[in-house]
Structures are given as structure tokens and as C-alpha cells.
């Protein structure tokens, strides 16, 4: 076990300005155990009085070796690791990984499965934005929202549990389709949720949007220009808050997102408040998408019937010898993927979540890499925080919506 | 009002000091506000309206280790985080307890690799293990009640 060592100023000389070395500015350590860093982020703040001269993020406190671990598992079994990366967007992680596997081996997904994927991904987006809203408002001392958003999040988690048996780590989306068909009560449960949700979102907005205290804490704080946002590689609401119209669901539609009508909410201010408004509007758009997907939900198979890659249904195993052989082969040695590499990006609640998959022709991925949105969104933090006050750092971290599991993996 | 009328003229209550101390320790246990990974979200859910940990006198999460009695290790502990977790534990005043929430904190979970400490009991003494990946809020509450029962059984002669 390594001991915590006292870091001397010499070791961090390249990170901080000369003024800090001379003792003119103060160095302040924030985290890794801090209630508003949304996990185990450590920030080294250089302060001139209460103004921030520089903010240096120190990550890796949650490094889990997920990408390395996935190389030791077959393509199907590696999927359970993806859930645990961005734990607020578990369905979306499975989604990007499965799309990559499907692209690698050339699998077609039936339309019903595609629609179910969209419904669940949008439900997950709602749940993720609810956690974001609750916690980032909590950081600004608005406690009620946390209670309200977690109340609605429980309903969504109930639906996820209904379809997959797990509240958070669903692994419901599988290469080639989904795990099982949804139960009969699924549609009713989602419709009940959608019926109450617009009113509940109004309720959240009543508490915050026009609240003068909230406006004071958010408007004009943590500004980023559209050019900066693009060159820093921001994505998701952090990019759209600066007025850049980029949403993968619209511009590179996957899994039949082009069948649905929805808008990409934009704001031009590029500050904390703009990012807040974008996410609130996104929640309403998600509701629109889920309504359309439910109305148009086709019947039919829920996974591809290419049994070289996709296990046969449980019911077939008892009656068909061939199904039994396929099942046995898939769950012992797995399937082989052709040599090559693919990249697939999906729009996660935080931005572009990309999965890069390289295969050497075996049954296990040779290399898996995730281009995670939180990682790229975090690196802009020094730009956002420079010149603002210490208390604003909390608002800024909340507004870029980082998940440390997503950053460190 | 209520209690006196029910019990009549009850001016004095006698009890063993051991029971009284254990009762008070278990009824207002302040957890440290300290989340690591996925389990932290379920810990927050356990604090929120639906599960409401304030029923057990635990609604007050202290972000400072100096003011807390209970450390809920919610999530996987990486090698980089391990010295920090130990330091936080050392900073907590006695008496203190630890709950390892979830499979990763209990035994490493699905992550048997170079980066994750295989169970937080390698670095801090754990009182209660809660299984699940992540455990449901009910499971965490069950773990907390189990800990309360354990605290109520503590013996005076064992206090440091």
C-alpha cells in the first residue's frame, strides 16, 4: 500500500504559475472527497484572493481498468463491463458497445428491437438528467429539487427493472437485439410515466428557472464561446449550450432515430444557465421521442435470427437440437469476429459516447476504447473556471455534468 | 403528553449505561457524505424521498470525516484512491463503523484486475458487507439496520 506523500512545490512547478511558487497566490486542494465534485475528482485550485487563477483537474481516482478487462472476455461477456463505466447512462453504454459489435460482424437488428432500444435509451436520458438536475441544484443549495427528481427517477428505474431485472446495470441491449421482449405491462407503465412527467418538469422549472438566486449563481458564469467549445472537443449539452447545433441522433442517426420527430434544443449564451436550459428542454424532447416510439412500436422478433452471433430464444432450446448447439457454442467459446476495427458514436446524456473496437479475428476484442464525453468535457474546466469565484467552481462542475466513472473507466 | 399518560407516574427510568450509550449511538449515526462510483447513486436514492434514511436518524450526511461516525464505502476503490480512503478513515473520531456497500467494495466484484483493491477490508476494518451490484436502497437500509443491531450488542468492556 502506497503512502500519501507530501508533494513539494517543485513537483508541481510546471502546472502552476510563478506567482504560486513565490507565494503570492494560494494553492487549494479540492477533493477527491468533496461533496460537489460528483465523485472522486480532485482539483488543484490556484487562488488570488477568492478569484481563480487556474484550476487543474487530477483524475484517475476511479480508474477501474474496464477497457483492459474487456480484452479478456468474449464479445458477449465483455458487455457487462460497459454498464459500470458511466453509471448514470448504463443503457447508453450497452447501446454504443452493441452497435460497434453489430457493425463489426455485420448484424441486422429487427425494427422492434431498435425501437425498444430508443425507448430505453431515452428513459435513461431522462433518469440521467434527473440525477444531474437534483445534484447540481443541491450543490447550489436548492435541496427540494433533489427530492423531487429522485422521486421520478425511481419510477424510471422501476421500468428498467421490469424489463431487465436490474435497476441500474441492466445489460438489456445485447448484440443483435435485446435480451427479452418487454412484458405486457411495459407500455402502460411508460405511458403513465409520460403522462405525469411534463407537469413534474414544470415543477422543477418553477423552483429554478426564474428563481433570482439561481439566476445569480448561474447566469454569466463559466462562459465558453462556440469556437472554444468546438476546439476543446466538447459535446452534448455543454456544446449545444454554446449554440453549436450538433446532436448525433440528428446528424448521424443510428437505430432508427431518423423515424422520429424531435428538435435539438440550443442556447447561445454558453454559460451555466444555458447548459441548464438545454438539458431541461432535452428532457421534454425525450418525452416526445418516447411517445412516437411507443405509438409506432412494431411487433415482430426482438433479436436477429443469425444464430452464429445471437443466441436462440430460450423456448427453442428445449425443442431444437440445432438451437441447443448454437447456444452451447455461443456461451462456451463465443463467436469470432472478422479482423478489423470499427468506431460507433451515440449521443449519451453527456455528449458523444464513442466505442472503438478492434478485432484480430478471435472471439475476444483485441482492443476496446471508449471515447467518453465526460473526459472531453472535463478538460475545458480550467477555461471555464478562470476568473470566476471559488463558489462558482461548484456551479461549473455541476453544469458540465461529469461522471467520474465515465472519465476514468 | 403521550408517554407520561401511557406509563402513569413514571418519573425515573433506570437502564444500564451500556444500553443507553449503545441506543444513542445507533439512533443518530451520521454517515460520511462520500461516494465513489455506481453505489453512491443508490446511496443517494436511499437518502431521497422514496426510501428516506431519516427514519433511522441518518438523514444528516456529513461531508467532513471529523463529524461522522459511519463510513459507507459506496463503490470500487482503485489503487490510487485507497490511501485517501484510509486517510479519511483515520480522520474519523472514535467510535466509527464501516459499511462496504456493493460487490466491489466487499470483494472486488467483477473487477479482478490491476486497478481495483479486492475488497475494502484490505485497508479498513469493515463491520457490514452489503451485496449487490449495485445493492438496492432497501439492501443498504438492511445493512444499516444490521449495523445498528451490532452496535446495540456492543459491550462496555470492549470500548477502548
CATH class call of chain B: Alpha Beta
**Averaged pLDDT of chain B, please?**
86
Question: Which range does the strand content of chain A fall in?
Answer: 5-15%
Write the CATH architecture name of chain A.
Answer: Orthogonal Bundle
Query: Secondary-structure element sequence of chain B?
Result: HHHEHEHEH
What's the mean pLDDT score of chain A?
Answer: 88
In this structure, how is the largest beta sheet of chain B organized? 3 strands, parallel
| Structural class by sheet pairing and helices of chain A | mainly alpha
The largest contact between protein chains, plus residue counts on each side, is: A-B, 41 and 38 residues
- Radius of gyration of chain B, rounded? 18 Å
Give the spatial strand order of the biggest sheet of chain B: 1-2-3
Tell me the total number of β-strands of chain A.
8
CATH class of chain A: Mainly Alpha
> Which fold name corresponds to the CATH topology of chain B?
Rossmann fold
Describe the structure in your own words.
The complex is a heterodimer of chains A (409) and B (160). By secondary structure, chain A is mainly alpha-helical. In chain A, helix 5 packs antiparallel against helix 6 (143-164). Chain A has one domain (74-408): Cytochrome-c3 Hydrogenase, chain B. In chain A, a hairpin with a 2-residue loop joins strand 6 and strand 7. In chain A, strands 1-2-3 form a three-stranded antiparallel sheet. Chain A has a three-stranded antiparallel sheet with strand order 6-7-8. Chain A has 18 helices and eight strands. Chain B is mainly alpha-helical and 160 residues long. Chain B has one domain (28-150): 3-Layer(aba) Sandwich (Rossmann fold). In chain B, strands 1-2-3 form a three-stranded parallel sheet. In chain B, helix 5 (102-107) links the parallel strand 2 and strand 3 (128-130). In chain B, helix 2 runs antiparallel to helix 6 and helix 3 (38-47) packs across helix 6 (137-152). The N and C termini of chain B lie far apart (39 Å). The chains are: A mainly alpha (409), B mainly alpha (160). Chain A binds chain B through residues 1-4, 32-35, 39-40, 60-66, 68-69, 80-81, 84, 87-88, 131, 134-135, 146-148, 150-151, 153-154, 157, 167-169, 404-405, 408, and chain B through 33-38, 40-42, 44-45, 48-50, 63, 65, 75-76, 78-84, 86-88, 110-111, 113-116, 123, 133-134, 136.
Amino acid at each position: 500500500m502506497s503512502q500519501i506523500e507530501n508533494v513539494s512545490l517543485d513537483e508541481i512547478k510546471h502546472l502552476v504559475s510563478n506567482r504560486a511558487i513565490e507565494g503570492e497566490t494560494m494553492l487549494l486542494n479540492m477533493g477527491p472527497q468533496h461533496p460537489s465534485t460528483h465523485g472522486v475528482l480532485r482539483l488543484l485550485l490556484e487562488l488570488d484572493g477568492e478569484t481563480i487563477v487556474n484550476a487543474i483537474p487530477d483524475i484517475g481516482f476511479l480508474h477501474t481498468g474496464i477497457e483492459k478487462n474487456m480484452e479478456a472476455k468474449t464479445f458477449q461477456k465483455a458487455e457487462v463491463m460497459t454498464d459500470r463505466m458511466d453509471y448514470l447512462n448504463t443503457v447508453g453504454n450497452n447501446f454504443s458497445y452493441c452497435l460497434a459489435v453489430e457493425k463489426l460482424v455485420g448484424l441486422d437488428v429487427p425494427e422492434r428491437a431498435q425501437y425498444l432500444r430508443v425507448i430505453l435509451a431515452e428513459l435513461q436520458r431522462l433518469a440521467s438528467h434527473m440525477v444531474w438536475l437534483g445534484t447540481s441544484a443541491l450543490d447550489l443549495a436548492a435541496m427540494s429539487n433533489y427530492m423531487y427528481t429522485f422521486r421520478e427517477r425511481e419510477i424510471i428505474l422501476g421500468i428498467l427493472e421490469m424489463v431487465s431485472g436490474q435497476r441500474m446495470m441492466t445489460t438489456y441491449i445485447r448484440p443483435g437485439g435485446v435480451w427479452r421482449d418487454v412484458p405486457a405491462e411495459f407500455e402502460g407503465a411508460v405511458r403513465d410515466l409520460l403522462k405525469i412527467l411534463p407537469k413534474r418538469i414544470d415543477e422543477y422549472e418553477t423552483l429554478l428557472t426564474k428563481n433570482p438566486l439561481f439566476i445569480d449563481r448561474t447566469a454569466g458564469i463559466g462562459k465558453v464561446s462556440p469556437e472554444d467549445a468546438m476546439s476543446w472537443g466538447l459535446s452534448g449539452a455543454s456544446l449545444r449550450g454554446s449554440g453549436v447545433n450538433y446532436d448525433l441522433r440528428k446528424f448521424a442517426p443510428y437505430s432508427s432515430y431518423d423515424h422520429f420527430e424531435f428538435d435539438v434544443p440550443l442556447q447561445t449564451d454558453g454559460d451555466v444557465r444555458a447548459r441548464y436550459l438545454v438539458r431541461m428542454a432535452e428532457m421534454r424532447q425525450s418525452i416526445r421521442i418516447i411517445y412516437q416510439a411507443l405509438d409506432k412500436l412494431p411487433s415482430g422478433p426482438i433479436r436477429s435470427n443469425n444464430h452464429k452471433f445471437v443466441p436462440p430464444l430460450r423456448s427453442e432450446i428445449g425443442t431444437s437440437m440445432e438451437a441447443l448447439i448454437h447456444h452451447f457454442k455461443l456461451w462456451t467459446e463465443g463467436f469470432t469476429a472478422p479482423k478489423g476495427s470499427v468506431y460507433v458514436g451515440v449521443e449519451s446524456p453527456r455528449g458523444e459516447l464513442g466505442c472503438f473496437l478492434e478485432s484480430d479475428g478471435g472471439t475476444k476484442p483485441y482492443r476496446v476504447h471508449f471515447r467518453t464525453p465526460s473526459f472531453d468535457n472535463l478538460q475545458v474546466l480550467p477555461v471555464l473556471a478562470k476568473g470566476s469565484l471559488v463558489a462558482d467552481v461548484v456551479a461549473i462542475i455541476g453544469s458540465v455534468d461529469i461522471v467520474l466513472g465515465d472519465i476514468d473507466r | 403528553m403521550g408517554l407520561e399518560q401511557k406509563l402513569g407516574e413514571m418519573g425515573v427510568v433506570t437502564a444500564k449505561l451500556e444500553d443507553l450509550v449503545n441506543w444513542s449511538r445507533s439512533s443518530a449515526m451520521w454517515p460520511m457524505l462520500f461516494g465513489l462510483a455506481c453505489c453512491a447513486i443508490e446511496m443517494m436514492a436511499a437518502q431521497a424521498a422514496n426510501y428516506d434514511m431519516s427514519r433511522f436518524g441518518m438523514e444528516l450526511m456529513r461531508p467532513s470525516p471529523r463529524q461522522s461516525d459511519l463510513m459507507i464505502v459506496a463503490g470500487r476503490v482503485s489503487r490510487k484512491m485507497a490511501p485517501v480512503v484510509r486517510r479519511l478513515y483515520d480522520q474519523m473520531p472514535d467510535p466509527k463503523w464501516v459499511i462496504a456497500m456493493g460487490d466491489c467494495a466487499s470483494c472486488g466484484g467483477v473487477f479482478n484486475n490491476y486497478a481495483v483493491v479486492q475488497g475494502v477490508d484490505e485497508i479498513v476494518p469493515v463491520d457490514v458487507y452489503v451485496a449487490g451490484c449495485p445493492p438496492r436502497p432497501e439492501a443498504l437500509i438492511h445493512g444499516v439496520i444490521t449495523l445498528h443491531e451490532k452496535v446495540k450488542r456492543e459491550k462496555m468492556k470492549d470500548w477502548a
